[in-house]
Amino acid sequence: MPRFGVLAELNGDGSLAKISTEVATLARALAEGSGGEAVGLVVAAEPDAAAKELARFLPRVLAVTEPAAAGRAWAAIAAERAAPILAGAGEDDIVLLGAGPDGRDAAGALAALSERGVLANATAVRWDGRLQVEMSAFGGKLITTSGFTGAGGGIVTIRPNMLTAEPSGSAGTVEEQAPAGELALPVVSVKEQVVESGVAAPIEEARIIVSGGRGIGGEEGFGLVEELAAALGGAVGATRAAVDSGWIPYAQQIGQTGKIVKPQLYLALGISGAIQHKVGMQTAGTIVAVNRDPDAPIGEFADLMVVGDLFAVVPALLAELRARGS
After folding, report:
1. Same domain for 103 and 153
2. How big, in percent rounded to 5, are the helix, strand and coil portions of the chain?
3. What one-character-per-residue DSSP string does 59-87 give?
4. Cβ pair 296, 318 in contact under 8 A
5. Is 194 domain-assigned?
6. Which residue range forms the structural domain that includes residue 164?
7. Fewest 10 Å CB contacts: which of 150, 236, 244, 280?
8. Chain centroid to CA 77: how far?
């Protein structure tokens, strides 16, 4: 019987990370489809609140109180505590994590400790008698399907915003789990945490995103993007070209080497729609593009494409929004 274990990630304030609610939803679905078990694990200096939140999505959650996690890098500590619990004896044990920075680091450490294989950046996971993991390759031009050899145990990291988090019908149980012995891996102290000012919520959680690309023309052009985002109550995103040009911080980059987003509405201003950007926003509910080039690739997958000068289209849109709001 397969067991799907979720190693939960935490936000800087100790709350449960959104990606872990998505992974937990997947684990529960896989367990139901395979007749297996889904279990969560929270490793933290104070795991109770996050464990209780995770129990909204999973029938059973284990909470490991690890004082060494306070003020130290989480990934290696969590992996060492998770190895004997989630990837210990069962040949069919599958460990699921988010494919964010912490999740990737923890997956690597957990793979080394448990001698299990890793399938990274999964875009879909299903059970068909054994685990089937879909991954995007070559900038989204190719979708591969892979599994684990042998009995099928291993580690899978899931890309953010590939599915919608859905709480279970009833809350699960939280069990205290004692740490097994002293930590053997070196711990890394966190000297400083930097939180970007002026950001109400992470861009990955935004319902509306207004994003700018090379067609914005420069740093000043992003003032128009920010104005439209503010009028819509959304967040500002960007392509790698805009970030590399120094027009906007990397934290707002969307695409293969940036954030994966899934807003209800995505407005793409001056964005050509290269595959590297597409993989970061293609799951948006509605995609609206503004571009002067009628043959821009983004027109192939946008729900609506306005062919025109964004410096004329956006002010007109802002005027209409203000008129409706007055």
Report:
1. yes
2. 35, 25, 40
3. SEEEEEE-GGGTTB-HHHHHHHHHHHHHS
4. no
5. no
6. 3-177
7. 150
8. 21
Q: How far apart are CA 76 and CA 171, in angstroms?
A: 29
Of 84, 63, 215, 93, the residue nearest 153 (C-alpha): 93
Task: State residue 312 phi and psi, 5-degree precision.
Answer: -105, -40
Q: Where does the chain show beta strands of DSSP type E?
A: 3-7, 37-44, 60-65, 93-98, 118-127, 131-137, 142-146, 154-158, 173-177, 208-212, 235-238, 265-269, 286-291, 304-307
- Number of residues that this document lists for the chain: 326
For the domain that residue 254 is a member of, what is the CATH number?
3.40.50.1220
Number of domains present in the structure of the chain: 2
- Within a domain: 124: yes
Query: One-letter amino acid identity for 145?
Result: T
Instruction: Please tell me the distance from the alpha carbon of residue 26 to that of residue 174, in angstroms, as a whole number.
Output: 19
137, amino acid identity:
A
Residues 77 and 8 in one domain: yes
Q: What is the mean pLDDT of each run of 10 residues along the chain (326 residues)?
A: 93 90 97 95 96 97 94 91 79 88 93 92 91 82 85 87 90 91 85 62 86 94 94 94 94 88 95 91 94 95 95 94 80
Q: Are residues 106 and 240 in the same domain?
A: no
SS3 52: helix
Two structure tokens written together for 179: 């740490």
Residue 22 lies in a domain: yes
The owner of tokens 């420069």 is 218
Would you give the distance in Å from CA 125 to the centre of its chain? 15
Do residues 151 and 218 share a domain?
A: no
Q: What is the pLDDT of residue 198?
A: 47
- Give the other-Cβ count within 10 Å of 32's Cβ: 11
CATH of the domain at 105: 3.40.50.620
Taking each helix axis from N to C terminus, what angle separates 101-114 and 74-86, rounded to the nearest 10 degrees?
A: 50
